[in-house]
Design goal:
single chain, mainly alpha, Serine Threonine Protein Phosphatase 5, Tetratricopeptide repeat
Length: 250
């Protein structure tokens, strides 16, 4: 009789495990197809069978993230890292959700943990810098971007964020240097031409600025920045023409 009970218990456990796996696999497929409501229902079914399934909590959190319910996403992603304290993806997505919810301090905490779990992931380090920037801790953000550039010189996003922040705080000469380095690393990043043009424009080097503006427009005539660049280029041409006219009159 005792063996029958043990065998029955094992059978029930195996059945539950199979059900959980089936719900989880179906939820993952639905999540990939962007059927978030249906995916969430299946992740919940998997969790009802196994309350310590970190991956199901993660998937449920991602469903809520993708429907922009960041508060609920944070709740379930946090549950995932409580179960698995080395769950890199969950820490990373927690950081992103905190940023999207306007809680940069919470983002910092989770990106720090993500970097501790996986110190070689440049995206997590970059987002840590973004989080500090969101807190207006610009020196810390610049330090993180620079360290990332030194350790991962081919990771061009670090150059983009550092140059953007430098421009934001009015350090146009330094931003121009970073953008020039970006162009060397990735000549296809023609958006850098617009940034260099703006920096040179702000520094009063108008003829050089026009050259970079034109290079940008040659490559990106239909971009979102194109109209602003065209207007500024026309303004600089007008200023140069009026200056020549003034000197000719004298």
């Amino acid at each position: 009789m005792g063996n029958d009970n043990i065998n029955k218990s094992k059978y029930m456990t195996t059945q539950c495990e199979r059900q959980k796996v089936n719900f989880f696999q179906k939820a993952d497929e639905l999540l990939q197809k962007k059927f978030y409501k249906e995916a969430a229902a299946n992740y919940l079914n998997a969790i009802l069978i196994s309350r310590d399934d970190a991956k199901s909590y993660f998937g449920l959190g991602m469903c809520y993230k993708n429907t922009k319910n960041y508060a609920k996403a944070i709740k379930y992603l946090d549950k995932a890292v409580q179960i698995d304290e080395n769950y890199f993806d969950a820490y990373y997505e927690l950081g992103i959700c905190h940023l999207l919810e306007g809680i940069p301090c919470g983002a910092i905490k989770n990106f720090v943990r993500a970097v501790q779990v996986n110190p070689d992931n440049p995206d997590a380090i970059l987002q840590l810098g973004v989080s500090h920037e969101s807190c207006e801790e610009y020196d810390m953000a610049l330090m993180i971007y620079q360290k990332l550039i030194e350790n991962s010189p081919e990771f061009t996003k670090a150059y983009e964020h550092k140059s953007s922040l430098l421009m934001k705080i009015g350090q146009y000469k330094e931003a121009c240097l970073v953008l020039n380095e970006l162009v060397k690393r990735n000549p296809a990043d023609t958006n850098a031409f617009a940034g260099i043009g703006v920096c040179l424009d702000k520094l009063g080097k108008r003829s050089d600025a026009q050259r970079y503006y034109r290079r940008f427009l040659q490559k990106n005539p239909l971009s979102n920045q194109a109209q602003f660049i065209k207007s500024r280029l026309e303004k600089l041409k007008s200023l140069a023409a009026s200056k020549v006219k003034k000197f000719s009159v004298v």
